[in-house]
Amino acid sequence: MQLNLKVKDRLFSARPGRFGRELRAKFKKALSETAIKGNEIIKNRTAEGVGINGPFKKYSEYYRNEKKSGWPRTSDRPAFSGDPSGTVNLMVTGQMLGAQMTRSFDRKSEIFIRGKEANRKAAKNSRTRPFFGFNEKEERDLQAFFFRRFP
Q: Bridge-partner residues for 111, per DSSP?
């Protein structure tokens, strides 16, 4: 996933030399900080049981009972001691959200999920309970966050 902010190219090209380099460095830093903030938004919202468009769809009764009592380690999943809360937060082992990372380039920053297994989990969860992205309010908040950090 990418966070796209529109910035006029002439902002940089009109400023030659050292000032232009400093401006580009500040821009890249602001992009990086904004991506980190976006990553926090996704993780915090998900932990509260809220997706892009509101509260997550409830777990099935079967899975809710399984999650409540926990399960032993098997060859394809780690042991889980149980969670009686019933909160739908896409969190059992923490692997999927723990693999959510950011990286920044000169003109863009990305939030992504590292690793084949974590990517598979995220894609499966996102079909039923969209969590990886931003709603309009969050996008506006991130743009404001960016512009507070960039002169």
A: 102
Euclidean distance between CA atoms 26 and 12, whole angstroms = 11
> Is the four-CA dihedral 112, 56, 50, 88 of positive or negative sign?
negative
* Nearest residue to 137 (alpha-carbon basis) of 33, 58, 50: 50
This prediction's pTM:
0.81
pLDDT digits (tens, 9 = 90+) for 34-75: 999 999 999 999 999 999 999 999 888 888 888 877 777 787
Of 31, 25, 26, residue with least CA distance to 6: 31
- Could you tell me which residues are beta bridge partners of residue 101? 112
Cα dist from 108 to 6, 65, 105, whole Å: 10, 43, 5
28 DSSP assignment: H
| Other beta carbons within 10 Å of 51 | 23
Instruction: Give the separation between CA 91 and CA 144, rounded to whole angstroms.
Output: 30
